[in-house]
Design brief:
The chain has one domain: Carbon-nitrogen hydrolase (Nitrilase/N-carbamoyl-D-aminoacid amidohydrolase), CATH 3.60.110.10. The protein is 22% helix and 26% strand. The strands form four sheets. It has a six-stranded mixed beta sheet with strand order 5-4-3-2-1-17. A hairpin with a 5-residue loop joins strand 4 and strand 5.
């Protein structure tokens, strides 16, 4: 669907929530907050990564694959119905079963009529203590069958959305490719938190790094960023660690990296702001990073290591 919103303003919302082992309970929480955001006038609503379940990647367990769903499937149909009923563009997250043995961490985008505007399958997959995602997720395709890049914005009635997921947020290449393809907003659904045994100084450094790198993508590409993260402490099902305390701090920033709204580290919340859709163009006229790129000199970026 092409953009039909010609207004210079767009009201957006990011939802920060806790999650339950019960998928129905988690989705009920999402729905309650979605309805509140829509009642407040949000036209674009963004949920956090894997909002229908607890973060199951703390351990490797083949039984967890039973949580995965096809698209379309129960959760995508549920979100589609909400988008249509409320007349909003809705960005959700699904543990996708694409086929036997191929599963993805997938963002789904539904337009105001409930149609699936597009999906994005997480491209960068981490594998760290407590974040064993390579066990569960196949990386998204670098190119689609029709030749489009995996880093392709999703066209909706409110504009082109550059949807990425969590670990993707550490990679400037992903943000830049979305920007070069015409993304009007960068969106990073996230599930990130602290090892509860980390000391406060280390926790502060990690949080600052997470916020700073995404604000940097906003600045470098002159685009607003929406970054919802979960809150709450979720136990390690294996009992091998003390679990993860998700640090919240969801935020929305403008195209110069300026904070427009930010959550705290403990509470569910709805961040709602009105974006000026003309600011990107105005800023690019005075800070023309894209004009001055030396594309003739960047060939080595495609190498793993420069010799």
């Amino acid at each position: 669907m092409t953009s039909t919103n010609t207004s210079s303003n767009l009201k957006v919302a990011a939802i920060q929530q806790t999650c339950s082992p019960d998928k129905n309970q988690s989705l009920a929480t999402s729905e309650r907050l979605i309805r509140q955001a829509a009642a407040d006038g949000a036209q674009l609503i963004v949920l956090q990564e894997l909002h229908a379940t607890q973060y199951f990647c703390q351990t490797e367990d083949t039984a967890i694959f039973e949580l995965a769903e096809p698209i379309p499937g129960p959760t995508s149909n549920y979100l589609s119905g909400l988008a249509k009923e409320l007349g909003v563009v809705l960005v959700g997250s699904i543990f996708e079963r694409r086929m036997n043995g191929v599963y993805h961490n997938t963002s789904v985008v539904f337009d105001t009529d409930g149609s699936l505007a597009g999906l994005y399958r997480k491209m960068h997959i981490p594998d760290d203590p407590g974040f064993y995602e390579k066990f569960y997720f196949t990386p998204g395709d670098a190119t689609f069958n029709d030749g489009r890049s995996g880093f392709t914005p999703i066209q909706t009635s409110v504009g082109k959305l550059g949807v990425l997921v969590c670990w993707d947020q550490w990679y400037p290449e992903a943000a830049r490719l979305m920007a070069l393809a015409g993304a009007e907003i960068l969106i990073y659904p996230t599930a990130i938190g602290w090892d509860v045994t980390d000391d406060p100084d280390e926790q502060a450094r990690q949080l600052d790094a997470w916020v700073t790198v995404q604000r940097g993508h906003a600045v470098a590409n002159n685009l607003p960023v929406i970054a919802p993260n979960r809150v709450g402490t979720e136990p390690d099902p294996s009992g091998q660690s003390d679990g993860i305390r998700f640090w919240g701090n969801s935020f929305i920033c403008g195209p110069q990296g300026e904070f427009l709204a930010r959550g705290n580290e403990t509470d569910e919340c709805i961040l709602s702001v009105t974006l000026n859709r003309q600011r990107t163009e105005s800023i690019r006229r005075i800070w023309p990073y894209l004009r001055d790129r030396r594309i003739d000199a960047y060939g080595d970026i495609l190498k793993r290591v420069r010799d």
